[in-house]
Write a structure and sequence with these properties.
This protein is 72% helix and 0% strand. The protein is mainly alpha-helical. The chain folds into 2 domains: 47 residues, Homeodomain-like (Arc Repressor Mutant, subunit A), CATH 1.10.10.60; 129 residues, Orthogonal Bundle (Tetracycline Repressor, domain 2), CATH 1.10.357. It is elongated and about 55 Å long. The N terminus is likely disordered.
């Protein structure tokens, strides 16, 4: 009798991750199933259940990786806090446009029965706190003085997300999307004075 050898997680993980992101990028959430991920990753569907506990485990892994990448993108620190805030805004948009699959999991779609774990929500909170720290630095430099740092950060995040979400949905009528987003960032920075 031939003994079945289980493929190690380290070999399955990258293929499943890449397949999941590709499906989200190309087909969106409607095509995101265990069977589709397994087929694209060239693994048996049972491997996804064994290694990720199903589609929600894959979503959790993407959520954590996405917010980790976003946190890293938002971490900008030079001697010019106002410029750092502007650069973080540009990095936010670049992350969203360059990582549609991750951004979909993080912000654009509520997947049935998926609720991030407490550990995963902490990773998301770290990304937000990165922005709060930049806002606090701006306040020390004389910017964004009209609101507590957490409130100003929420306004900034909401405005940037709104712009990016409309852009991802192709509901952006700006004549020059890059310039309009830059104007949005400057308006946010200066509007709290």
């Amino acid at each position: 009798m031939k003994r079945t050898i289980r493929t190690p997680s380290v070999k399955i993980g990258p293929e499943v991750r890449n397949a999941a992101v590709a499906i989200l990028d190309e087909e969106g959430p409607d095509g995101f199933t265990v069977r589709a991920i397994a087929e694209r990753a060239h693994v048996a569907p049972m491997a996804i259940y064994n290694h990720f506990e199903g589609v929600n485990g894959v979503l959790e892994a993407l959520w954590i990786e996405g917010f980790t990448m976003l946190r890293d993108a938002l971490t900008v620190e030079t001697n010019d806090a106002a410029q750092d805030l502007y650069d973080a805004g540009l990095a936010y948009r670049a992350f969203a446009l360059g990582n549609r699959g991750f951004y979909t999991v993080m912000f654009m779609h509520r997947f049935h029965n998926f609720k991030p774990s407490i550990a995963a929500t902490h990773v998301a909170a770290e990304a937000y706190e990165t922005l709060v720290v930049t806002v606090e630095r701006c306040q020390e430099a004389g910017f964004l003085l009209g609101a507590p740092a957490h409130d100003a950060a929420q306004v900034i995040w909401s405005a940037c997300h709104g712009y990016v979400a409309l852009e991802l949905l192709d509901i952006n009528f700006a004549t020059n999307r890059d310039e309009t987003f830059a104007h949005l960032l400057m308006t946010l920075r200066d509007g709290f004075r």
